[in-house]
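Reviewers asked in the last cycle whether our approach scales beyond single polypeptides. To address this, we selected a multi-component target totalling 196 residues and predicted its structure end to end. The input consisted of the following lines:
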Amino acid sequence: MEFAELVMKRRTVRRFRDGRVEREILEKIARLAQHVPSAGFSQGQRLVVVTDREQRRRVAETCGERFYADLGMGSWISDCAAQFIPCVSEEIYHRRYQEPDKLGADGQEADWPTPYWWIDIGKTSMVVMLAAHDAGLAAGFAGPQDIPALKAILGLPDEFHPIGVIPVGRPLPDVRSASLRRGWVPFEEFARWERW
Ligand SMILES: Cc1cc2nc3c(=O)[nH]c(=O)nc-3n(C[C@H](O)[C@H](O)[C@H](O)COP(=O)(O)O)c2cc1C
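The resulting structure, written as structure tokens, was:
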């Protein structure tokens, strides 16, 4: 798919057809998502891909799936082909920025005016969603409400933080988010030329 079309046509989808997606396709999405830039090439991002039905159900529970079901949206977080769960370790960034080539003139680690680990895992997430769309699939995004439970279910090492659950599958017509009524910020407000 052409890049502009891919970006413009991607939508958050919250209902998926029953049925599995080939491992090869899921792996292609994961491989593409690995290839995003990271600060100092720290590569603190990881992906956990969950396909097992019972494990998907457990993961979905930590995102309050019942709340969505009560809104008539169905169990879209578990009824998908796979859940992609982007995780990031802030510690990996600190370790990387304590290496000699990253220390400041004062011999100290940067004081991180912007926490780059959140930026990098956001890019990983975006590539998962775009790669899913490019593969003829669709993706949603559910914010976890019980992070300790999600970490325990996935067996994550303590330093990794799961930022969300991205259900991926073959799309069905769904209930659109009420947030979309907000419309887009005008382009002129979003993009400024030369200065604000
Ligand atoms: C960081 C992030 C968190 C989100 N959390 C949720 C969520 O918890 N539940 C949900 O239904 N959608 C969630 N969304 C999806 C947004 O509502 C959606 O991206 C937005 O309404 C724009 O719609 P679009 O993706 O179709 O363009 C989230 C999206 C992002 C980027």
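The longest strand covers residues 82-89. We regard this as preliminary and will revisit it once experimental data from Aim 1 are available.
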